[in-house]
Amino acid sequence: MATTSKQQTEAPAERQRAPSPYEKWIASTGVPVHRGYFVEDVRTLELGPWPERECDAAFLALTGQEGISEARVTEIAPAKTLPPLRYALDEITYVVEGRGMTTVWPGENGPKRTFEWEKHSMFMVPRGFNYQLTNSSGTTPVRLLHYNYMPIAMNIVPDPKFFFESDYVNPEVLAEGDLYSEATAVSRNDPRGADRVWWYGRFFPDMRAWDKLHTYQERGAGGHRVGVVFSGSQMWSHMSVFPVGTYKKAHRHGPGVVIIIPAGEGYSIMWPEGGERIVIPWHEASVFVPPSRWFHQHFNVGGEPARYLAFHAVRGIGGERVVDRAADQIEYPDEETFVREKFEAELAQRGLKSLMPEQAYTDPSYQFGYEIAGD
What is the pTM of this model? Predict the structure, then answer.
């Protein structure tokens, strides 16, 4: 089957339709909008000035977000503090580059809470809270990736002022006290039959170093996983870690899932059932979005364990989760021979060899070993 590798500007043209309220709003900002299947490196992505927010920024409108999720990149100049901002939506921020601090407070004069972050930190600001972002370095800029559900929310309420000028704050969040206390582990019975730990919180200091993982046997590759639920929110994410010389099973789900790479080198293949395969090369700070109901598969061809961090659409939107593994996941023995051949060829170019067990290609019930927890 044919394969291609397509840059940001090469995604197929969308059918003609009137722009959505969200599309009209981002156009009104004058900020660059990047489209297509992926962004190779958000650290070097072209940005433009956003005078209202006193920073440079860009919106990502990648194929697969499909009017569900917003992703944007913000750059904060050295020693700069941005003006206060308030959303009527929860928002996740991942620190792509740099270090700094966030100050959060409710209402006009509510108590302020400041926390520091660095490269690979992840945090969420609760809806209705004011917040300010500061670059702690006097010499290097900060780059942040933000994720929220603004596109789908604006289809319901098409007035930007509703989201930026609302003064409502959830009283349950106000009653918590410390919004950014240490994340806590909660054991949940997984519908796939495993008793797994999810982490609840709003601040995670370093996703590249995070090692509180559980085994993830059903996706193969001897990989591990962590699920993150943001307290008091419908937002959630997960991070998958898988070893050198391995690759994950292909699977598919619904739209709106934005993926960034904290560590590793590899590629992903994405395709609609029976359609053309799109190859996405990735490394640290690459971003891509699997389109709705497209199969996609992740391959580690680097010299270290690979990590990808996924920000998920709200549950229940467009079949976001894999429910029927028989229909929505391809087991190793059932893949096309092209998959294995390309993987081994990519490794050979780097002087590496596949560590995939031969039995995995012949036995659908093969289970990877997990002698060493973590990476």
Answer: 0.92
